[in-house]
Design goal:
By secondary structure, the chain is an alpha/beta fold. 37% of the residues lie in helices and 15% in strands. It is built from nine helices and twelve strands. It has a five-stranded mixed sheet with strand order 2-1-3-4-7, with helices on both faces. A three-stranded antiparallel sheet has the order 10-12-11.
Length: 271
């Protein structure tokens, strides 16, 4: 009997891209995507209720409980013993790296394969003009499903060796013991960071003129792309913008930075 292949991914958008690519290839492999961003919030333990309370207190999110709960169900799939498991990893995305580490910690000693996108380059050929220069695949969610399909990226799957498994386990154990508000990429690995880590990056994107929060977020989110890393997302940054407003470092028009298209921020105006 053919063994069922389960794909585990650690970004919802990446899960959707992979499903489309696999179906285009005529494959019906199940794709299991976790949605909780473990690059921020408490992880010792990774408890849905604890994380949702933290997200409400620190980020103003009152709808967070469903997200870690869905991820709990996804991680439970990793314990299915009779399937080939393929995890899609990139050490350039803090969310995907952290999600992979938690998944692996729950897997125990069961065998698994890894598609490591960290150093994979992809190129796209536009309809008109020469091919674009190759770019690093920073996230599975940033890859078009046609590119995943045409490059057959699932063929990159290789068994996770014991020495690599041990390194990943030790890294996650250390991060869990530190249980910092943030985990960010530094030197190709995840390290703990304070909750204010991205505040200066946000402040650099704000001017004396009113700007929509969506514009500030967009500028901040691409600020680290020159490093070929994806450090955080809008969920965390909107919470920090609200905190900067509450501390007086920013002024706001609108109810909350969570309403990114209906709120504006600027630097405080001196009288």
């Amino acid at each position: 009997m053919t063994q069922t292949i389960l794909h585990f991914v650690f970004t919802p958008s990446g899960g959707g891209c992979l499903v489309q690519a696999l179906r285009k290839a005529g494959r019906d492999d199940p794709v299991i995507a976790s949605s909780d961003d473990l690059s921020f919030g408490p992880i010792n333990p990774v408890d849905p209720l604890m994380r949702s309370k933290w997200a409400e207190k620190e980020l103003g999110r009152t709808d967070w409980i469903s997200i870690p709960t869905k991820s709990e169900r996804a991680w439970d799939e990793s314990r299915f013993p009779d399937n080939r498991k393929i995890a899609w990893l990139t050490r350039r995305s803090a969310m995907e790296y952290a999600g992979f580490l938690e998944w692996l910690s729950r897997l125990g000693d069961a065998p698994c394969d890894i598609v490591d996108l960290t150093e994979i380059e992809v190129s796209y050929r536009p309809e008109h003009g020469p091919p674009e220069p190759p770019q690093l695949a920073m996230s599975l969610g940033y890859l078009h499903h046609d590119k995943i399909y045409s490059d057959r990226l699932w063929d990159l799957a290789r068994p996770l060796q014991q020495d690599a498994r041990d390194r990943y386990r030790n890294l996650w154990q250390r991060l869990r013991s530190e249980d910092a508000p943030l985990r960010v990429i530094n030197g190709g690995d995840l390290v703990s960071a304070p909750i204010s880590f991205f505040d200066s990056m946000v402040m650099e994107c704000v001017t004396n003129d009113w700007q929509k929060v969506s514009r500030v977020l967009g500028d901040a989110l691409v600020a680290k792309w020159d490093d070929c890393t994806i450090q955080t997302g809008d969920t965390f940054l909107t919470g920090r913008i609200n905190a900067l407003v509450e501390s007086g470092r920013l002024e706001m028009q609108g109810k909350s930075a969570l309403e990114i298209f209906d709120s504006w921020v600027r630097l405080p105006q001196t009288q």
